[in-house]
Amino acid sequence: MSIFPQMIEQLSTWCLIDTWMVVMAALVAMACAIPGCFLLLRRQSLLADGVSHAALPGIVGAFLVSAWLTHGSGWNFVLLLVGAAVTGVVASVLIEFLQRLRTIHADTALGVVFTTLFALGLLMLRLFADKIHLDPSCIVFGNLEIAVVETWGDSSLPIGVLAGLVTLGLNLACLLLFYKELMAATFDPTFAESQGIPASRVQLLLAVLASITIVGAFQTVGSLLVLGMLVIPPATARLLTNSLPRMIALSMAIGGLSAVLGHALAIAAVGPLLDMAGIAGIEAVSTSGMMTLVACLGLIVAMLFAPENGAFSRMIQNFRMQLRIAEEDLLAVLYRLEESDKPVRTDQLITLVASSSGQPHWRVWAASRQLIRRGQVDGRDGVFHLTESGRMGGQRIVRSHRLWETFLAQRLGLRPEQWHEGASRAEHFITPALRDELAQELETPDQDPQGRTIPPER
Amino acid sequence: MSWLSYNSLLVLAGTTLLGAACGLIGFFLTLRRQALLSDVISHAALPGVALAFIVGEWLVPNGQRSVLWLAGGALFASAIAVMICSTLQRLRPLRGDAAFGIPLGGFLAVGVVLFSVVQQMPSGNAAGLESYLFGRAAALSTNDVFLLGGLAAGVLVVCLVCQKELLLVAFDPEHALAQGWPVARLDALLTAMVACICVLALPMVGFLLVVALMVTPPAAARFWTHRTGLMMAVSSLLGMLAAGAGTIVSGMSEQVPTGPAIVLFATLLFIVSAICGASHGWIHRWWSDRRQRSERALDDLLRNTYEAHEAAQDRQAALLPAGHDVAPEIKNAGVEGAGIELPVVYPPHLRETGLQALKRMGTSRGFLRLDSRGKWRLTTLGVQRAKAVVLRHRLIELYLIEHAEFPPDQGDRTADLLEHALGPHTVDELKEILRVDFGRGVVRSPHPLETNAAEAMAPK
Amino acid sequence: MIEPMVSSESPLVIHDMTVAYGRKPVLWNIDYVAPARKLIAIVGPNGAGKSTLLKAALGMIPRQSGSAVFYGKPYAAIRPKVAYVPQRSSVDWDFPASALDVAVMGWYGRLGWFRPVNRAARTAALAALEQVGLGDVAQRQIGQLSGGQQQRVFLARALAQDADLYLMDEPFAAVDAATEQSIVSMLQLLRDRGKTTIVVHHDLQTVAEYFDELLLLNLRLVAAGAVSEVMTPQNLKATYGGQLSILDAVGQRMTFGPSGSK
Fold first, then answer.
1. What does the pLDDT average to over A356-368?
2. Which among A76, B425, C21, C32 is placed 20 to 30 Å from B382, CA to CA?
3. A114-134: per-residue pLDDT in tens?
């Protein structure tokens, strides 16, 4: 049976709550993208990991203080943000201090500080569980389903949405205000310092922004799981573009999109899929997990298909180059045959080129089709003939080859048996400008070291 | 609950063994600069456990899930995580931190999703996410303990047997490769052992805190020694202590979760080590700094006394008409005589409090003594030492002036800074390089001395 | 005096070796036969591929083509007889090990798998440390040694291995004049004992004073032979002068090949 009707049926139960959940998640994801981009570029993504651990005692502490202030009747949003900022600063300062000890390495220092703070947070959670009514796994992994129910005062606006708006606004404001400084301190901290930009303070700002964002996100995606949203969308965006503003915009878009898709898949796709696999009774899975998972899938897609950095496009580029080399080899062989006036049958020629250049037979064949299609080779009556444009191409390759052989012999002093192989490899990478330079360097030779004529440039 | 029961003692034994194994393997891991690998592995273990649970449920509905089965799932996921890490490392824009951050976040997400599935399954309530967050040593069954303990002991043995090879690869992989050691395979062995230990420690400390047991004890051990073998032992001892103490405390109080307790004990041990450590600890460094300072002050006192007397003697010699020598008694009392003692001449900026300590130190070394008239004198040993100190100072000064082209006055000041830092070797080397005349046991100062020479001769 | 059995063979024969990072060649068609019992310097500008030559000969970097043969055998068959001294900066000197611990590593190959370090290894390592004048700091942690001493610890490790051929990557980088002198006299002592040493060197001034043989390298072998014969103005110009811009340009295009066309 098909699962699509089931999925659509599930989706048709979409209601206002779902919309609020998606809005909340998308806001958080977009807020995360901003510090995430800079952390990624500074190669400090693990600072995000560290801060996401360290945020726990900050959150629990803020809850405790607000419970104490309000006599257990509620919690204070501002206090939470202050707690987050304090934690961020404390964590950054602690790392700085430990690194100055020099006895231990940076990543070790990170590990010691953040596991300790996290352990402290967990312990506080357990010890004061009766005072603050917090579910540990909700804090750490988020729970949108619960968060959406907690609304601001009497309005229907969930507090999570408000938190997302505040953190996103804060991040955007800092981005616009300090774009120049962030950019300089990220790219080259030493240079930034020399230009009067306090790179270490910019770094601190970044850490504080990250920890505020993490705390703002704890209801939605959880203080730990937020790490994924801090790292993965920026990484995806980085693979897709080489410009910083575009990267920030893209990673915000990717974050928002993963929130929407993640929730939709969480409520509609996983249940039916597992049902098909024989595990029944699964209603919906965690949206916070699912949105990070969607972001991960996005990253995998980018790794495969990104225009420049993707594995697939690399493969295509590679294949194109191999094909070009095969075409050039064919042209060069035809040109040489023409020089000695020996026509060779098509199939023999392809075998000849394939064996002499070490390329697979099919690729050389494909190259010959390509040449015929482009009108560089005329393949009628079972024998290949160069057309005028084909002759020009072949002549260029042969000229490159023989010039390079001369260069290898005269300038590198290689032995005769080394000439041909080196030239066969290099001939495909010599531009007309380089050919001119070579000819000049070698005082315009008209014969290669084996006594064959070097054809003129065309 | 009585934590002295047979079962809890057994659990205690298991966790301490595991702690020791963590400390040991963490030692190698941090030396190889791969501390973060344990973080990735333990994060990956979470979805691994959940997946194993789901697959188990699918194969045998409502069956019992053994620890071994779940650990197998965790190991499987860890292996995938390690592969992902190394793949990401090869992508230029994501090299470095991001290559670790991405799998951390990703596996966490998968784990959360899978656990939300597990919790909706009929038999899934037992496998709550929370126990993997906090760790629960007390919940281990006897069989589990034997299994954990056995595997931990196995890892300990492998580490000890391959100690030499693991250290070689950690220190200098290039040399190891050139010598034909299979570096990649040794790395794989290390990673596999880390994965095993991480997965084993999972139910004990919780998956987020395993990394602490791998990282903190070796970091703390650095403060105690810099000898490899000893550091290894200290690291596993600290791991053992932390695990043991954490287990006991959480066994005594239901409210204290095992994982955080163990980690906080590990941090406590780290702080104690940073303060009291015998090789890099704060107290040790403070103490040796102080020692060095007073050592320098004593040297300065000796040198000042000697130079003052030397100057006084020179002045007397200058007053005499040509052809006359200094009177023998003055000469004997002066710097050239053998077996003489000199009254102490104090350097100008010496604080009174420091002076008392200095006199005590000089007396205990046999350089100073209080004479019958209540004056402090340099003993013969003290004069010898003073000569050596002065010689060292002047050799450096001469070297700086002759070979490094320092102006004379700068040479003096720089020599002040350098003389305490150089060992006896250097003095010998300098003697060779400079080839000076040692007529008087010391060389003349290359610049006029400004000492309170009057003071030296006055209180005779 | 110890007569190495393999004295008839050349310690290192490199035949038509091309090395590429990715697709870009960094060494083009190197042919070299090292004479036995000589002190040989490899000299060339930055980025000429000096260290790469050693590493590729040892198989630590894959060769695109060609071969390297040590005493007539492939490297794997004769490892104990070849000692490699990497650059000092290649390791972490905070590592908790003493000078002796490092020197003992030269003996590891002889110990083989799983055998712990024994007295013989320690004695040999200590003797090697004494030879380089570090006998009295053998127990000190390597991080507390000066740069020159660290370099000499590496040297001691190679000595402890008791090889016949020593390959050293920049042993004189960032050491003081005294250390340089003592390393040189150490190397000359090795030569007098019938060993061969190939050193990556960066200082043309001292080549004639320290070494017997010279190998001038810049992406390809410019010249090799006795120092007095090779140190000619033309050779030096060919090594350090421009002229190679074409080689480099083509190599560069081979890295980013796909976008290139004729």
1. 88
2. B425
3. 889 899 988 988 888 777 777
The domain ranges of chain A are 11-259+299-307, 314-441
Indicate the residue among B195, B216, B237 that finishes a domain: B216
| Cross-chain Cβ contact B106/A270 below 8 Å | no
Determine the number of helices (DSSP H) and then strands (DSSP E) in chain B.
19, 3
pTM across the whole model = 0.84
Are B180 and C111 in contact (CB < 8 Å)?
no
Let me know if A144 is exposed, middle or buried by CB neighbors in 10 A (0-12, 13-18, 19+).
Answer: buried
Q: Which of B392-396, C190-194, C244-248 has the lowest mean pLDDT?
A: C244-248
What dotted CATH number matches A314-441? Answer: 1.10.10.10
Hey, are the CB atoms on A108 and B35 less than 8 Å from each other? yes
Q: Is there a contact between C116 and B162 (Cβ–Cβ < 8 Å)?
A: no
Residues in B touching C95 (Cβ below 8 Å): 31, 170-171
Rounded to the nearest 10 degrees, how much is the dihedral formed by the CA atoms of B444, B447, B450, B454? 40
Question: How far, CA to CA in Å, does B447 sit from each of A20, A204, B334, B362?
Answer: 85, 52, 20, 28
Q: In the CATH scheme, what architecture does the domain A11-259+299-307 have?
A: Orthogonal Bundle (1.10)
Q: What is the rounded CA–CA span in Å between residue A214 and residue A55?
A: 7
Query: Are residues C105 and B175, on separate chains, in Cβ contact within 8 Å?
Result: yes
Task: Note whether B403 contacts C: Cβ–Cβ < 8 A.
Answer: no
**What mean pLDDT comes out for the span A289-309?**
90
State how far the Cα of C240 lies from the Cα of A324, in Å rounded to an integer.
Answer: 35
For tokens 């002068």, name the residue.
C241
Min Cα separation A339/chain C (Å) = 21
CATH of residue B145: 1.10.3470.10
Identify the domain containing residue B356 by its residue range.
284-457
| Whether residue B205 is found in the same domain as residue B308 | no
Residue B73 lies in a domain: yes
Neighbours of chain A (3+ CB pairs under 8 A): B, C
Strand order in the sheet with C12-21: C24-34, C12-21, C65-69
Residues in C touching B161 (Cβ below 8 Å): 114
Q: Which of C12, C58, C105 to mutate to test the interface with B (most CBs of B within 10 A)?
A: C105
Out of A286-290, B62-66, B323-327, which region has the weakest mean confidence (pLDDT)?
B323-327
Helix (H, G, I), strand (E, B) or coil at C162: coil
What are the tokens at C6?
Answer: 């393999």
Contact B120 A283 (CB under 8 A): yes
Determine which helix (DSSP H) or strand (DSSP E) holds C66, and give its type and residue range. strand C65-69
Chain C hits for B228, CB-CB cut-off 8 Å, are 96-98, 101
Residues 6+ apart with CB under 8 A from A387: A375, A376, A377, A378
This model of the complex carries an ipTM of 0.84
Count structural domains, chain B.
Answer: 2
Look at residue B444 and tell me whether its pLDDT is greater than 70.
Answer: no
Residue B62 vs residue C119, higher pLDDT = C119
Of all residues in chain A, the percent with pLDDT exceeding 70 is 96
Tens-place pLDDT, residues A398-451: 999 999 999 888 877 788 888 888 888 888 888 888 888 888 888 888 888 888
Q: Are C95 and C46 in contact (CB under 8 A)?
A: no
- Answer yes or no: is B422 within a domain: yes
Q: Which residues from A are below 8 Å from C when comparing CB atoms?
A: 105, 317-318, 320-321, 324, 328, 393, 396-397, 400, 407-408, 411-415, 418, 421-422, 425-426, 428-432, 434, 437-438, 441
Provide the 3-class DSSP secondary structure of residue C201.
strand
Domain final residue, candidates B216, B244, B269? B216
Q: Residue B224 has what DSSP assignment?
A: T
Q: Which residues contact A347 (CB under 8 A, 6 or more apart)?
A: none
- What whole-number distance in Å separates Cα of residue B192 and Cα of residue B166? 13
